[in-house]
Specification:
651 residues, globular, alpha/beta, nine-stranded mixed β-sheet
Amino acid sequence: MKMKNPFFEKYAKTITAVYILIFLLRVIETALVTYNYGFDNKIVVSECFGLFMDVFGVSVLIIAYGIISFLLSKFKSNVLRVVNITLLVVLTLISLSAIIYFAYRLNLLDIFLYQYSIREILFTVTTFPINIFQITMGFVIILVVLLFAWLIDKIRFNRVYLKLLYSFVLVSLPLFFLFNRLWGSNLDEYSLNKPFYFVEESIKYALKLEKDVTVDTEKFRELYPEKEFINDNYPLVHRAKRENELGKYFNKFTTKPNIVILIVEGLNDDFIHEYKGSRLMPFLSQLKDSGLYWERCFTLGERSFAVVPSVLGGLPYGDKGFTQQKRVPRHLSLVSILNANDYYTSFYYGLGAWFYSKSRFFRYNNIDLIFDKSRFSDSYSKIIVGEDKFFWGYNDRDLFRQSLEVIDTLKQSPRLDIYFTGTSHSPFAIEDEDYYDSQLKQLVRQPYEEFYQTHSTYLKSLLFVDDALKEYFNEYKKREDYENTVFIITGDHPMTELPIKNSLKRYHVPLLIFSDKLNEPQSFTNIVSHLDISEALLSFLQDYLIHIPAISTSLGGQLICNENKSHKNIAFMNENREVIDFLSGDYYLSGDKLYYVDSLLNIEEIEDTLIKSNFEEKLNVFRNMSLYVTREDRIISKEDYSKELGIDEEW
């Protein structure tokens, strides 16, 4: 290889800068992960293996960009230098963002970023618990890159170095494909190159065109053999079969009961049992034993976008989640139905109700009151985060206290009160942190000392939330309407900052129903989901309601099922808004893998092409119908909507 052409020497400087950047990024990634989660030999080995693959894999980028650089070299020399430095800085910023995100979540940054509005992204970023150490390391590496990019132009490389460098690049290309074929399957989330993964997934997302969906109504209806579907133009519409299975566990209410729905941020079902040797949420654990408890309840989404429409309406998911549609499809919900039955309906949230379009959903359903952070009394302390002093919201204790003050000023009965907590979410801001530090230390058990230390921020937030719920119930007991109130408690999704046992457990949340009118506690082992809650509540309330819909569009059913009934078919939407996970009976399809599920929700990968192909077909049928009815506004007709709510509305 001749090296007389000055381009080769100049480009050698770019190549050298890229190799140094690759090394620095791996060092900072390993340092951040170790800083956040503690030292682990396996993680360091994985990161070193990742660096090995990075060094060979970057040859693809070097050769591809080399061709572009050669063409740019025909212009003035400054043009190529500016382009090189700009790309180097942009690559560094993308890399740091992907690495810091991974170091915080231990999840790879991918297309889920494109499923959020700019406002939601900025809100999420402001709550990231990035500390001075991480910020400092980020600035240091950027300065090093900029300094090196400026200095390297002054360095002279001899012919031996140039030959060795280019020879290594050329040899690296076939070796990378060979190594990837031999060991590519061994790349775990630590080994994978975070920025390259993000860019690759982004390109795939950009090239993915929105396709027309083909619906198969008959096959869709086979997923729900218990439903009597009655309208081909609106495929979800079916006759409402209201079997009041919950009623036998309650003493009679003399008036319409109040309904309180508490959606607890990040509430994993594991948290209300012994967790890592201790009880992190003793109050909820006790409430579980005193009320009705479903051991195997699932949320329908890996993030919070799914919970509100699922719990309140059993609604389909659409492209990005029901509330994220460009246009809200016509639909029924527990809010609109109870509102039509003279219930005062309200939503209480310590953050901004615009997040995940919650306010949009509630306004559509004619809710009487949306009470979020913008309406709190000045007597409560705002939570301010970040250097820009961002007003995040209020903690859960203040949320409950404020809500009870508001309720005292409202029409007292009957009511539907919906809460969405936020303390067990980044930035995990709590009051009395010293107190909860001491409480957590008392809970530490062998051999989990390192786990408690590493994850103390998140665990303390759970202690705080449990205390806030305990105080809320204690205050509610003093109210005259306590014995006339039914409480439903569930989680939006398991806390993503803590390790989750397997891919199915990403959706496993508790479901509790409690009331002073309960005549006996009971635990249930049948599989249920958030989709079942609204229909079960309407069946329970039917004797107290005047305008009870004769039809339903809910994807859910009942919460209590006898053994003769068929398995529920449950499709999940992951954080990337992909519907690729499906549970039915003892089997679970996740992406392209099929698992057997035991009674404790442990999963074991199996090979069964018949079951797998059957699940893939069912999932595709569900996904297409979910897209169709939300995109085309085919959930319920104008006439049925008005009729079932007892309203005369012009459209």
